[in-house]
Amino acid sequence: MENVRRASEGGAGLAWVRAPQQARSQETLDRILDAAETLVAEKGFEDTTVADVVARANSSVGAFYTRFRDKEGLLYALYERYLAQATATADLALDPARWEGADIGTILREVLRFLVGIFREQAGLIRAFVLRNHVDPEFRARQERLSHYVSSRLAALLLERVAEIRHPRPARAVAFGFTMTFSTIESATLFSEMRSDELALGDDALAAELTRAYLAYLGVAGGAFDASTPN
After folding, report:
1. pTM for the whole thing?
2. Which of 105, 210, 211 lies closest to 158 in space, CA to CA?
3. According to the model, what pLDDT value does residue 2 have?
4. Is 140 inside a domain boundary?
């Protein structure tokens, strides 16, 4: 059965999906990947060394190179694990049965808050992937496939409620709105040090403003402002 780790306290109970425990033969690999993920979160991929990883994993350099050709191979392995977890998370979080009876505003408020929480919790790891996207076409293609998968799952949910959308081209608006929102979350959580203080928002406020913007762009009635959300 899949393990889950909560990334937000949203009313929908959304959570990040962890893979089930592996057989004993995989324990060393799991320890290395867990150690690498923690170190990358702490100080970034470039400043993490193989020696750091094996020390944190209570493993050895020999065990590392048995499994990875080099540190770049480790990054690919981390991304493959992240990709599997992200796909499983999207399947669970965007399952239509979870949102039966919910309107677009409710869906977006919960999903965007959840996404902001994931990006904040895994900022170091995701930042390493984003930076690699700029120089590695294969990495970028994988990331684009994941983004398209999540976008298509969310779009299916929203377009089931197309009567709530007043934009003249609902399918385009849903897809384009997701792209704008996702890019803003990425920028605000991964590279916040590059933004002015005036644009710095707490996670709840960021999610609330993005929800307002997305709903207003879709033309959902009452979506432009909700006084109950954080300032």
Report:
1. 0.82
2. 105
3. 45
4. yes
